[in-house]
Structures are given as structure tokens and as C-alpha cells.
Amino acid sequence: MTTSPFYPATADHRRLRWLEGSWTGEETHHPFPGFPESRTAEVEIHSRMLFGGLYLERDYRTRRDGELLYHARGLYGWSEADQVYTLSWFDSSGSPPLLEATGSWHLPEGGSQAETDKEDAPLGTLLFEYPRLERIFRASYVFPHSREYHFLLESRPPAEDQDEAIGAEEEAPWTPILSGIYRQSSSEAPALGSGFEGFGEPLP
């Protein structure tokens, strides 16, 4: 009898497959300190599952007028011990990496795992919230169906700053930073290789 070298992926791990494959979209960068104007950019994303389906690796590239503006790698997982999704993010911005944000997957109201396995069924929302750069950030991935998701990145001051600014009984509103709609161009996972060779243009 041969035993698998991998820990068996659970239903929670398998939800990450909804982000697998190749995706394209347009996103809006909203006004934010240091960036006073809204701008749009084109996005290309390629994702694959790793280690027998335990993690999802994403290659994320943003371009404007054909110029590469931003390049990142994300690693998504599920912690069975803590019952949370995890996200680590490394990018070209020069900021410290996000080593591990935690989040949860909210299935549609009244929905079940069996229903979300249907191709055109809504898949719910993957939501992360984490402190970073002296603010609190919230990242949401909303799946109207398996071939499209809507992303929104927002931020607000941490609780202690909110108390000083607006009073202890109110919470500061979330400020949108980035939003976009992404559609799956291929459900095939990228080939192995650190640069995801064969998927998208090579880095300059």
C-alpha cells in the first residue's frame, strides 16, 4: 500500500481552486494619499495550486499604456488548526511584504458546498482584514460565478486613531483604494517554473 506524501486537501482548501487559472481584467486605482487622481490599469493574473492542492500561488501584473507598473506574487492557504484562510504577498512596490493575513470564506446566504460546486452558482466572498503601514486593510473577493470575481481593497485608520478622530462610539468609514472585475480566460493552471513561462509576457 502506497501512502501519499501530501496532507489531504479539504473542502476549504479546494475552494481556492476557484482562483486557479488565468485571469484578465481592468481595475481602478482610487484617490489615496500620494495618489490624488483615479486611474485605471490592465491586469493579468496566472494562478496554480501547489503541494497537492494545499496552497494557491498567484502571479499578478498590472500595466498601463503597455508599461509594467506592478508585479506581485501571492500565496493563499487554509489553516486547518486555526480555521482561517491565509495570504502572504510579495511585490515590487518596495514596501515590506505581507507575511500572513488571515480571513474567511462566506458562502452565499442559504447556500451549501454542493450548490457552489455548480459552474454558474454564486460562490460567496473571500474576505481578508489585516494591519499594514499604520492602517487597517480589507480585501474582498466576490464571486458571482466560477468564471468571474470582483475585487475591492479598502483601508481605514486603526481603532486608536479612530477614537481620536471621530469618537469612541463610531467607526471610521472604509476608504476604497483599488477595485476591479476579473474574468477567467483559461481554467488551465500555468506550467511549472518560477516565471510561469508560457503565460503572459516575460518581465523586461
Report the mean per-residue pLDDT as an integer.
84
- Principal-axes geometry comes out as globular
Tell me the span between the first and last alpha carbons.
Answer: 49 Å
Secondary-structure content class: mainly beta
Regions with little confidence, pLDDT below 50 for 5+ residues: 194-204
- How many distinct helices? 3
| Gyration radius over CA | 18 Å
- Give the percentage of residues in beta strands: over 45%
| Main β sheet profile | 10 strands, antiparallel, barrel
Helix and strand sequence = HEEEEEEHEEEHE
User: How many strand elements?
Assistant: 10
Helix content: under 10%
Q: Describe the strand arrangement of the main beta sheet, using strand numbers.
A: 1-2-3-4-5-6-7-8-9-10
Task: Give a concise summary.
The protein is mainly beta and 204 residues long. The chain has helices spanning 11-15, 113-116, 159-166; strands at 21-29, 39-50, 55-64, 67-79, 84-91, 98-106, 124-132, 135-145, 148-156, 175-186.
Structure characterization notes:
About 10% of the residues lie in helices and about 50% in strands. A ten-stranded antiparallel barrel has the order 1-2-3-4-5-6-7-8-9-10. The longest helix is centred in the last third of the chain and has 8 residues, at about 160-165. The relative contact order is 0.18. The protein contains three helices and ten strands, in the order H-E-E-E-E-E-E-H-E-E-E-H-E. The radius of gyration is 18 Å and the shape is globular. The protein is mainly beta and about 200 residues long.
